[in-house]
## 1
Amino acid sequence: MAPAMPNSVSPARPRAGDYLIASKRCELHNLERFLQMGKLVLTTGNLVHRLQRERGATNVFLGSGGTRFSSELSSMVRDSDQQQRAFEQELMEIHGTLTGQPTSTSLLNSIAAALHGLASLPDLRREVRSHSLPAEAAIHAYVERIGHLLTLVFDAAETVVDPAIASMMVAMVNLMQGKEMAGQERAWGSLGFSRGRFSHALSRRMTHLIDAQEQSFTVFTRFADTDLLTLWRSHNGEPWWQEIRRLRGLACSVNRDRSLDTGLADSWFALMTRRIDQLKELEDLVEDHFHRRCIERYTEARNALAHEEKLMESLDESGRAPDPVLVVCTAGEADSENVLPSSETGRRLGRSIMDLVQQQARRLDQVNQELNQAREALEDRRAIEKAAAILMQHQQVCESEAHKQLRRLAMDQGRKLPEVARSVLSMTGLLR
Amino acid sequence: MAPAMPNSVSPARPRAGDYLIASKRCELHNLERFLQMGKLVLTTGNLVHRLQRERGATNVFLGSGGTRFSSELSSMVRDSDQQQRAFEQELMEIHGTLTGQPTSTSLLNSIAAALHGLASLPDLRREVRSHSLPAEAAIHAYVERIGHLLTLVFDAAETVVDPAIASMMVAMVNLMQGKEMAGQERAWGSLGFSRGRFSHALSRRMTHLIDAQEQSFTVFTRFADTDLLTLWRSHNGEPWWQEIRRLRGLACSVNRDRSLDTGLADSWFALMTRRIDQLKELEDLVEDHFHRRCIERYTEARNALAHEEKLMESLDESGRAPDPVLVVCTAGEADSENVLPSSETGRRLGRSIMDLVQQQARRLDQVNQELNQAREALEDRRAIEKAAAILMQHQQVCESEAHKQLRRLAMDQGRKLPEVARSVLSMTGLLR
């Protein structure tokens, strides 16, 4: 796609122009990688979507003692397997990019975790079919596998160093995170409704999952572009939302005395599935915008490169090194009048190159500033998730409790939630 | 040095173990690159040192109307040329690493700027010899070229993603920054003393350079290890420091009526050169520690890799995929008891791999947290320098005035200096 990176054969003597070109090639090469990352995120998102549905159905199946959703489950497993193959196919296609570059240590490791989880899905499904696994354990098993896939998306998103593209990734990551919370809500809700009752713990869990969704979607809307927001709003206007709210009400308000109509399980599953499919629709739109933006940026960058390679040639034809003259720039600009170039062409050529270099430097500076803002949003969400996971493991508490502990810490110390999460992460060593 | 990264030939089917190994290889590969970056920083530092001395002598020469330092200057130019060749040699040696990886867009561009500046040194020197260049313009010309070399060091430091090594780079960058401020102080002071008087502007500039040094050295001491601090303290205890303070006093307190003994130029130059050579000594020590630490980390990482490759082999010999069993980890740890592995060996193997993956994930998380702290310190200093440069160019003010404006902004808005600097950078587009 892009001109190959210059090979390691060194020039007779390093020259400014060569490195300016190399810098532009770097950008081009990066944009190619982002396109691949986008494809990886897309296939991962599709697999997550299938596994989320399979998880939901599994819980209707287990919650109903195997009387409901037996055939639905089988066809969903087929869908998941198909998507898993597509995911593995994608991994193999970008294997070279992933392992050939020393830039994605974390990404490679989270791919390892994801593959490890996927490899044991058949065992999990067998145990579900033979009812030899409690529903709670089954949900945890799916949650964990999907969690690995979402971590993979986080790490892929972090390899993006173009601000416009990165902020789309932030929207994507938060959308997927919120969608997964909705998926967990569907799964736990399916369990409760198909059993006809919600324990106190289960209700608390449902409440947490609803709050967590809102948090993720707030960040999503902050980074989403207009098209996305329009679709987002039209989705939330759907009339059947009322019914979801009603069922949520039943699930979150525990009432020991009265048991619920187990038939609600089907409508709950159907409604939440509609909701989650909406979110998938949004996800695909983000992916589409991401792809288009990458192509645009790639074309821009390639034209810029072509333009400057042309300039470099013209300089070489003129038979002189591209650095023929004293030019005082940046800080010294004010004094450049004091500086007499060896010749007028010299001044022109010298300026033209230094201007390009300065231009590139300024652009990269600004890019980095904008990038930092997108990165922060990504890092905040990530830090919170990871800190919660650590607390859950270290204190053997459930997710909602872990998040509650984090919020309490933040309140007590009057610090922001992400800050607190970061200090938890930096103490990981102590906690283990 | 390290095992080559796996080539793009994809495995039959992607497996967890392969990606765990690939992740470890990534780390190893990174550490190799840091070693090369360290060498680049070292040679750059040496070249900067020579150019700083040349700049100082140039100003005694110009300030004294060519009566002083004529021969010294010639020999210093020879030293600089020699170091410039070493620098270019180093660049060619790591040419493949630099241009072959899509990780250093900024670094490549700052190398272009540095080379461009160096290429025009001969013209600059000619103009100095022929007195066709005002001393101020000559200083600016050197300051600009050295500035490009320091930016290169910044960018090289930023490619380091190992916390222990990164914080050494932070110490290095701030040491070099402070040393350059001292070098500029020597240059402007040489001009003033050899002319026998300090204008109001010149005195203000000296004051700013002294303050700026202190700022950089404060950060340096924050990130320096014990050996460095010991050497740093012993340096500052030297008796001849008193004399530097006395001369600084003369330079900073303007006294129009009385002109200074121009003979002071020589002792000023000698004293400041002693001071700057001390700083170079520190610089070399940092470099030495950096190198040693890289080797240590490299050895650790290679052993870890070897250990895990062995494990993978043993798994492959056992003829089964390294993901034979359901294991619920992290969040689900508490529930893993509910999960029955297909076999005990299965459980053992399954655990051993997932444990390694989890271990790697935890380590990488913590590494990133620590890294962010080093990065911040680097970014703060960088943002301030760049914001000042933009103000200087945009408002045509001198460096001390630009820094004063930043400090005022910070005070008025009750924000930290780095924050203000960042908002200036993010507005670069508007300012130009």
## 2
Amino acid sequence: MTADLTLRPADECRYDALALGEVMLRLDPEDFRIRTARSFRVWEGGGEYNVVRGLRRVFGLRGGVLTALVDNEVGHLVEDFILTGGLDTSLINWVESDGIGRTARNGLNFTERGFGVRGAVGVSDRGHTAVSQMKPEDLDLDHIFGDLGVRWLHTGGIFAALSEQSARTAIAVVQAAKKYGTVVSYDLNYRPSLWKAIGGRARAQEVNRELAPLIDVMIGNEQDFTDALGFEVEGVDENLTNLEADMFASMIEKVAAAYPNFRVIATTMRGVRSASSNDWGAIAWSAADGFVKSAQRDALEIFDRVGGGDSGGHVHGHEEGSPEAGRRRRRARRPVIIDV
Amino acid sequence: MTADLTLRPADECRYDALALGEVMLRLDPEDFRIRTARSFRVWEGGGEYNVVRGLRRVFGLRGGVLTALVDNEVGHLVEDFILTGGLDTSLINWVESDGIGRTARNGLNFTERGFGVRGAVGVSDRGHTAVSQMKPEDLDLDHIFGDLGVRWLHTGGIFAALSEQSARTAIAVVQAAKKYGTVVSYDLNYRPSLWKAIGGRARAQEVNRELAPLIDVMIGNEQDFTDALGFEVEGVDENLTNLEADMFASMIEKVAAAYPNFRVIATTMRGVRSASSNDWGAIAWSAADGFVKSAQRDALEIFDRVGGGDSGGHVHGHEEGSPEAGRRRRRARRPVIIDV
Amino acid sequence: MTADLTLRPADECRYDALALGEVMLRLDPEDFRIRTARSFRVWEGGGEYNVVRGLRRVFGLRGGVLTALVDNEVGHLVEDFILTGGLDTSLINWVESDGIGRTARNGLNFTERGFGVRGAVGVSDRGHTAVSQMKPEDLDLDHIFGDLGVRWLHTGGIFAALSEQSARTAIAVVQAAKKYGTVVSYDLNYRPSLWKAIGGRARAQEVNRELAPLIDVMIGNEQDFTDALGFEVEGVDENLTNLEADMFASMIEKVAAAYPNFRVIATTMRGVRSASSNDWGAIAWSAADGFVKSAQRDALEIFDRVGGGDSGGHVHGHEEGSPEAGRRRRRARRPVIIDV
Amino acid sequence: MTADLTLRPADECRYDALALGEVMLRLDPEDFRIRTARSFRVWEGGGEYNVVRGLRRVFGLRGGVLTALVDNEVGHLVEDFILTGGLDTSLINWVESDGIGRTARNGLNFTERGFGVRGAVGVSDRGHTAVSQMKPEDLDLDHIFGDLGVRWLHTGGIFAALSEQSARTAIAVVQAAKKYGTVVSYDLNYRPSLWKAIGGRARAQEVNRELAPLIDVMIGNEQDFTDALGFEVEGVDENLTNLEADMFASMIEKVAAAYPNFRVIATTMRGVRSASSNDWGAIAWSAADGFVKSAQRDALEIFDRVGGGDSGGHVHGHEEGSPEAGRRRRRARRPVIIDV
Amino acid sequence: MTADLTLRPADECRYDALALGEVMLRLDPEDFRIRTARSFRVWEGGGEYNVVRGLRRVFGLRGGVLTALVDNEVGHLVEDFILTGGLDTSLINWVESDGIGRTARNGLNFTERGFGVRGAVGVSDRGHTAVSQMKPEDLDLDHIFGDLGVRWLHTGGIFAALSEQSARTAIAVVQAAKKYGTVVSYDLNYRPSLWKAIGGRARAQEVNRELAPLIDVMIGNEQDFTDALGFEVEGVDENLTNLEADMFASMIEKVAAAYPNFRVIATTMRGVRSASSNDWGAIAWSAADGFVKSAQRDALEIFDRVGGGDSGGHVHGHEEGSPEAGRRRRRARRPVIIDV
Amino acid sequence: MTADLTLRPADECRYDALALGEVMLRLDPEDFRIRTARSFRVWEGGGEYNVVRGLRRVFGLRGGVLTALVDNEVGHLVEDFILTGGLDTSLINWVESDGIGRTARNGLNFTERGFGVRGAVGVSDRGHTAVSQMKPEDLDLDHIFGDLGVRWLHTGGIFAALSEQSARTAIAVVQAAKKYGTVVSYDLNYRPSLWKAIGGRARAQEVNRELAPLIDVMIGNEQDFTDALGFEVEGVDENLTNLEADMFASMIEKVAAAYPNFRVIATTMRGVRSASSNDWGAIAWSAADGFVKSAQRDALEIFDRVGGGDSGGHVHGHEEGSPEAGRRRRRARRPVIIDV
């Protein structure tokens, strides 16, 4: 699949791809449950960040992350993981610590994997984070997109939902990217819990509709298009079958008509048999080629599905042996981004 | 040492001792440093809580804790540890989770032990916690101190500094305890970082001076009496020598004169040779017996000193094999409380 | 399912449920085999105990355990786990240690999980335990069932088989419970190895027939009813199919006729595909409602089946993240006990 | 030091050295305490066995062990460790399992290391073991010492105290060894807890006095010579100083006079500063050369002292990296045995 | 199945079975991937060695290994594992270390297990090993096969491919074995990467054809017979179905005709569904009985398939709890060797 | 201390510092010994590399490494660690894998820490590595030092001793660095085992004398100056006392006279009390300021001394929590390099 996306020349740009989003410390009790754990393995993650990390470690692209961290030991642990992820850390916005975590914190994500009939559960401890308070003026956007040069920017609906500020920051950063010819992808990723206190579904749609006309590659499942962008589709439930895929396709056509700027629209279709076994497929549409479907993989053995709802790009899981190993998740947009 | 403390009869009281304070999840990178860790061992801790936990597990007293937790997986992990600590969990104030940690969180404490010339460092991630928002009316104080009965209440300056609310809550709970004849101990534990945003040293002294007339057993090092209560003592630095102990004694006499309600005043005196070796001693004064000194232990091998600045009662460390093992910390107030 | 069981009022009783049984230290080599292991993860377990632990941690009931432990470090480790289990430890009968384990020991249970075609195996090291020597007079039965009050007592055929003494103790405790109106459940759990040296199948039937007229809720698989109680049923093998379930139902009807005091009779039906995959179902009969069947779950992913033969109540596994996680074991008696 | 010991020619003997004793499974909670542990590292150990294991792994001698194990998974785990120890397992007396541990068990030894001011503690769970029931006729002594050939036999007072039977077995095995010209060493190792139920100190002396005339190399500290053999020495306490060493020397002279068959008498002298720091020295006397003293090592860093009281030959610790590593324990008898 | 193999009497032979081959240190990142691992679990392995280790630990035969190791810490770690494997280490050829690994090294094998759709991958770091340089004159072959006596020798195409020297050594050792009446089995195990630099497929066939007339029991899959010995068979791919098994059978008949000295020819047939699920079967032909097929096991749960391509005898995996546990791999030659 | 070193302007240079050297995988058995280990923790290390890693992670400089790795899973694991170290990986020379390790390997370093009287030991498995075969033409030296720009190059006597090729490569790279104005530091680090097979001490001196006139900052202990460069000093042994420090100073003056191009000469002075306790000091001379001594630290607690003999810059140990934590190693050249 080759989308008709025009990218800036590589030699003009320091970055092949930047992510705008939160990077949290993931705490994983391994075979155990959070509520009875005695130790946690840790690493980093974030819906938008994971996509660019995968592009760096799996495909060798030059990447970086636009985010903020509190300048304390936990913040530097997250930085240590971003270095391991191969991403440039020089754009991180470091915020002074108050020693207590009242004014600004680093985001934490406790998640257990589930096993068999027991599903994954977790605690998202990401209130009052430094990144949720990050303003456009904390980033030198003209320097980054103008002087340094960025071929692709990836962000999404999780970052936009972190706070009222982060919605405004998302819009400003995407505008700056477009100003300098950077391709922009956006993962709708509608999360009711994040939006609840800052305006709910109505405000989510308002923000996403303001962003949508600036987006080149739009990613989301059918729920996302409904809740986050306001399109309606009938007869589709969470686990898409082939029939449902067809119905989803008709919705995508409506979306494409409403936002002619979208060059690619993509989604994954996941059927959850148990925490240890999922069916998996993906579908993408591009202005150039119409619909493309991935190979359908039924009864895929699952090691850890974390991130399945966060982002479409955790390619790094199965390629780098992180705990996501075992999942072969290649969303339809992957090949597009490889074309970068 | 036998202080002239009059305790309520044991058979009238469901609790030998209650703590009022925060219970945090401690995250320990074991032999490694936080900023390069890949896993954390966890357990619970809190300056006020640790004292009553030690009374339960080392001495068999019936204890409980007045605290609040968010009703999510991390909150229930802390509850799991409190159960292991043998304390009654029925007085915990459970607060609904918003799924994100904006409205209320559970406190976290990342701390590494240090080794040799490298000292212990950590991140206290305790802003916006449920317990910092706990109000007197969240606790049925008349039922607890009146109907159920409590022989001893322990709280301190860390809890009082969590927020403007917690200072008010501390005062209200101590007043309720005194109303029903409960003995009250208080550990001054002055922490500038906690007070900074809510009035600083001046507000700390205001709160502590309001509480002091209600306290039976007052605990603190010389810095605490100076910063948290406003007494001045000359020529004393952090690591008290015997000479300094004499000077500290003279300050205690001033304190005892100012607050004749204090039945016992106690402190530890720690000399830090390295993260792995400390000198340790303790001194206590009681209205009944005057001064008593503990055995002086020089060049004590240290496994993990966490809590050394938090509380005076982590006796459970060396008695129960928790990572504090190796420290023999028996503050002077220990024998007093044993007398309960 | 609502059985016609009349329970004592909750506010008259300190305990919603007590278990009478052994609490062993389980030693688990995790992914490895016992005979080549280099470390063991440990926790506690016991056929009767597990039921009440689940009632406490999953459903919040107030529970305790009637058992005995040797007063040494291993005994206190078991106590540490019982505290974590949320059960009252004040009824534990502590027995003096001889320093060697000749006169009395604590029970140990080394068990490996199995994987695929390799089944679980283990070593039950429970001879000469303190609990096998526990006499009725070691427990203040009138105080416990009379003064303190107990709504439900759970015990079973494993405890009764620990020694000739334990059979007599089981009878005496059940009699005391009935005297004060406590509902009694009993899990037949026939174990030939335990009975072998103390009278075999004949003695097992003798003991169980003495107990049966006192039991309100009787649990057992078809083998248990045959071996432990002496009922015969034809054409039923270990892995019950639906057809076999019907045949089991006809046996239950015979059992109900023979012991009209049984208000509920229940069992699980497990089909072992491999150590990692089981079919699972359950069936219960009550005097009030006749037969009820659980949802049938085929090809359930298994993490650790330990306890599958021990007891019907290890609900805590999948609810608390212990190594049993992954099994969704809800025997038919569960809903009954929830009704407590 | 060269003792005037005449050994059988190596090419006539299949074994350079055999141990007669118990091999237990040691369970070690590593940095934690037994009573709050969640996992144990395991390996094997035994006062008499350790000596011959060291001779095999450090000095390359051909060794084996006369012992008994129950034929279950734990017994085979101990066998797995004996194989790793390089000792011949063909002489092990395998006893059938009853599935429960009533008739015969394998010995277990839970021990924590201690740290700083907290000393090592443990639970010796060795009642009713197979080896304590081992009879001379379970071993084909004429075949072992006659046909196969053994140059050196090592046993001691721990094995002799396991039961009334084991005392008789020890005597019979030592007699068989002497009959075929095998040199015999014996470590007195007096343990009151082991003897308590089978005749106490009086019976210990009776057994040891029956064995002593058959022993070539006698090992023990001053307490051992007093309690286990009935010699008296004044003014010597547990931690021998140089002065005390002189007094110990005079006792040895008395011992040598009483038992002219002793070719070598040896002991270690340990001063315990803390669980993490010991002073260490050793002294030996031989008929040929009189007294020899080892280098004195003060303030030796201790990793794990287990076995310090058990046996004199745990050389394998510091040579093989087992948890005893860090201790350089070379008792005076070492060079003697090397001369084998 | 009883092959018409005539074995030397057991009482004339010190060894029931010897392996000639490399013993490598296996490094396993457990649940993780090599390229992102932070720790490795280690043990030993080798295609030829594993067969004899299994014979010792599963069936109790007296075994040893003809191999070479560098005399450094890693070499002694491998020796430690061989001792645990129960094999005689006295025939190991110890080679002096140059401190750097230029002149001779010990072989290492980093392998990750794979999970689900991600296959196993690894790094074989076995260049310049001591064993690849081992010459016939480094072994006292007349003493080993003549004086000591060996009933069975197992070697194979991996050892023969280690270097030009090892091919010559393999031939010389097999000749010596035959000279003294030892039965010889050989696993073809064709590895292109090993042969590439020393003559490729042509040289492999040359070596194997020189060895074949001396072999009693020949093992190999269809690819092995084709590549390593030069037989052609049509229409057979890697995962043999029943149909293909028939075709394989016809090839075996050709092989048996070409080498009438083969008493047994055997292979396994593995179908890889995913890294976690394999179909497994085996087929064997003997001169005495014709064809025998094992039970076919479909969708076998796989824990770790390492060695699946290395050797036909890793029986020790599922019997001893090593990470191969879960695989029930009983090649047809197993029963034959049991008949020894 | 401010040395009169003229550095290229930072904004002309992409790299503040480059290392030329090998990066090995370190395998650490943690508390155990290599020869009895069952697992290894891993990370990366190398005498020259460690210096630049420290400059990046402790002081924030922009660094990279000139090295070669085989393109297999182990090579990518080393790359994963270099990323975590924050160094640019784009200059790594990737060499094709032959699948076996005959033509080129990645270097491995098994090292155990030692404890108390047991010293650290290890196995350096670095023969036939890709980096030992790296030629100047494998690196685009004019592009690196000319176009990209490098302010400081650090290399040393370990890299130069890897092979005859690496000595030639070291000379060529240093010449290229000097051609473009890059400051060059060199750590003599004489290792007899590395030089033994490629000309010994005589060849080492030849190589070092060819390099010395190009070096700005020369590092080495007194043994290094003697063995690696041919200077003689009397009366100095391995553990320098203050007196010896004076004698070392007089040797440095001779060295400075012989090589007037040296702007700084520096060394550490380590006294080994035990594996767990060292005395530590450092001394430096600069043309500008004469001699400077570090603070002397006696009886420093040691966690892991690995690298102590390798390089002078493992600052990252105690700053980043790697296992070297606990050592505060700030050689005199540190402040110089900070001045960069």
